[in-house]
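Two proteins follow. First one:
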Amino acid sequence: MTWFKIEKPLFTLFIGAVLAGAMQVARGWSVRASIIILVLGGIGLVLALAQLISDVNALRSGKSAEALTMEAPALEGYGRWGSGEIWAWILGFYAAIHFVGFPLAVPLFVFSYTKGYGGGWRVSALLAVLSWGFVYSLFDTLLHVPWPEPLFSIF
């Protein structure tokens, strides 16, 4: 086995070790200081593991490793509105934040967007609940972010 064939898995292991080391160091910090390192490091470790699996499978099969494609397809400016539809969603989300507040605007936006682009009721509701749970657990419970008062207060 030549050095060139094992170079990719070794580099992926190195990146994973750097991320794991950074997360280990950040565990001793306060929550506010370490949260970004732990969240992004966790995501990076999952991606490094996916890349390592791809590299090892390519090494075992003897083929050259194909690059993992984790990119979203490029947006096409179709229709007569072009990117106006995107701006309408952004401005609608901004308005929802001011009218009902950020913790309720996020699941409302996620549900509307998912349902508007062909998602089923279950998927849309599940994603809305997960997004609300993420916002509530991270920003309200863990970080205690003070939210500005919305124009229409439901609670």
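Second one, unrelated to the first:
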Amino acid sequence: MRWIGIAVGVCAVTLGAWFAARDLAGPTIRRSHTEFLFTQFDQGYADFLRAGNAPAGSQAAFNGLVSTWQIDWNSCEFRDGQVVDSWGTPVQTQAEPSTIRLRSAGPDRRFNTPDDIEKELGKGPAA
């Protein structure tokens, strides 16, 4: 009976440590997923422009391109024709003549705060 108590205790400690590690690493992982998504968009958009296509003139045109690219979404999504970051918030897309600006609200899910993640596409060949 004593061994059962020890085994349950070890399992409880292990489970607690896993939850604590997940809570500590979660924001960093979500941020890296969203940044990686934006990097994939940068590469896809650069390829699109290098192929001689005209820049996307609107959010809808850009989102139409996204649906044609091979993307590793990780914890992000393309839902109802819209890009959603790893926190479940729709990404803001601003199309300008020469660039596409992407903005994720980040962990606080509010735009225009210090934790936002931003990427400007179309500034030249992807590295």
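SUMMARY FIELD: Residues 2-50 form the longest helix (49 residues). The longest strand covers residues 100-104.
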